[in-house]
Sequence to fold (159 residues):
Amino acid sequence: MGMRYEVFEHTADVGLRGFARTLEELFSVMAAGMTRLIVSSETRISCTDEIDIEVEGHDLESLMVSWLSELLFQIYTKGFLPGDIRSLTIREPEETSTESDGYAVSAAISGEEFRPEAHELVLEIKGVTYHMLEVEHLAGDEQGRDDEAKWYAQVILDI
Fold:
C-alpha cells in the first residue's frame, strides 16, 4: 500500500491524514487528498497544463501548510486543478539558499483549468490551519496502520 490518505471529522472543519514511504510521497498524497476533498472523486482531471511551484517553511509542519496553501491559491485564484505531481523535491535546511532558514519544496504539477461543466466542486476549503498539525517520521513500532508507511501527516482544513 505505502501511500494513502484518509479524511476525519473535526468540529466545523475537516481533517486530512496521510501515510507514505517517503517525505516526498507524503507531500504528494496530502495534495491528492486535499484536491479530492474539493473536486468530486469521479471528476476526471486532465493533465494538459503544467505549473511549477516552490514554497518554503522553517520546519516540516510550516512547509506542509505553505505547500497546501499554495495549492489552494492555484485552485481558487488561478483556476488550476492539480491532477498529477510530475516531480517533487524537498530540500533540507542545509541544502536551501543562504536567504532561507528552513525547508523548501519544489514541484512540477500537471492538471487543467477549472471548467464548471466538467468539474464538480464538492467542498470549499478556506485555508490550512496549524491546529493539530503533524508531520512525523514514524519509528518501526509506530507504523501500525500500514507497515510500509514511514511518514505521517495530519492537517485540519478550514471549511
Notes: DSSP finds two helices and eight strands in the chain. Helices lie at 23-38, 60-76. Residues 21 and 149 are 5 Å apart (CA to CA).
